[in-house]
Amino acid sequence: MKNCVGQVVRGDDFWDRTTELETIWDAIDSGSHILLVAPRRVGKTSIMHKIKDEPKEGYIVIYIDTESADNENEFWHKIFNAMQEEEFVNRLKSKSKKLCERVKNIRIKKVSASGVKFGDGQTLDYLAAFETLVKDLEIDKKLIIMVDEFAQTIENIIKYEDIKNANSLLKAHRALRQNQKVSEKVTFIYAGSIGLESVVSKINSIKIINDLNSIKVLPLSNSEAFKFVSQLCLSTKIELREEVIYHLLNKVEWLIPFYLQLLIQELKILSRENTESLSDASSIDIAIDKALEHRSYFESWHTKLKESFSKEEYLFAKEVLNIISENYTMESSAIINIAAKHSLDEDEAKDMIRTLVYDGYINNNENPKVYRYNSPILRQWWNKNVAN
Ligand SMILES: Nc1ncnc2c1ncn2[C@@H]1O[C@H](COP(=O)(O)OP(=O)(O)OP(=O)(O)O)[C@@H](O)[C@H]1O
Ligand SMILES: [Mg+2]
To answer: What pTM was estimated for this model as a whole?
Structure first.
């Protein structure tokens, strides 16, 4: 396992997330459609690739990233393209000859705003076209369609078109999921670096996705993270004493693979500079300081807020995060008190806080009335780069 920092990990570089994968496969087997829920950088896309690269017997998997789709047409374009792509069709060959022939014989000429035009001249709306495509899938093979960054597509449509069109795509997907003929043959898995639930609740449409089975992807447990770091130390050839590893885990606290890899990378650089320094727990603090200099790894936590919310909501969220980054904690009553300053009423402020919790900035796990950062690393970065 190499120490990959930043890109999606695949193959031997993927640290097995057995529990999550078992839960996801159980849900697929039971016929659910799934929403993978986790804040950014926790490892959703890597899990989706694992499912694609090593599917269970009887399933064929397609992965589609729809982040760049700004309207319904572009979205469906991506879906239909993926279902006709050579890579997918070739993979079908080994799994299911009949399905491969079927897909090969369907020629899509054009996906436009008015629907999908097939080679034989008929034009169907997106839903009917999708149903046609999956109609003859062999009954013993089920298709898993993983749509990554779906929430981003919905947010793009809200931003560049309107709420009505965003609702139309959400409703189209619900209709597909509730169409028995489709559901027998297709499982949808949605994920994204922004929370679908928060985007959809902003436009009061949460009920359109209430049929999804939401599965949380959690950070690693302490013991998992210890094993993960030990493995990374072996592969990067650095030596950390057990107590130094525990110190590292304590400091990172929100144990997502990404932060652990980032610190191992910095520790490796330190070790090149000075072999002595890693024996000491203070090397971890130095590595964290160095890690925080990678602006591009953290900046999106700030820019996403700017892009996704109104000016008032953004300024309110920023002030709350600034204060917590300074004081470590903040009471909910104090948060509500500053809402008026940003022209938000209590309900709007509470919605905003829920979004910050859902998207992985803060939590109130220890005490429902007190909020703190999930990640001390993000707290430090925010304090240094946004609050000051
Ligand atoms: N199972 C894993 N094994 C090893 N590294 C991982 C694993 N999962 C995540 N990572 C690390 O975390 C980083 C983020 O992973 P990934 O892109 O899968 O997360 P994500 O939740 O899809 O992020 P985003 O919300 O930004 O799309 C990867 O670049 C990799 O460094
Ligand atoms: Mg991702």
So the answer is: 0.92
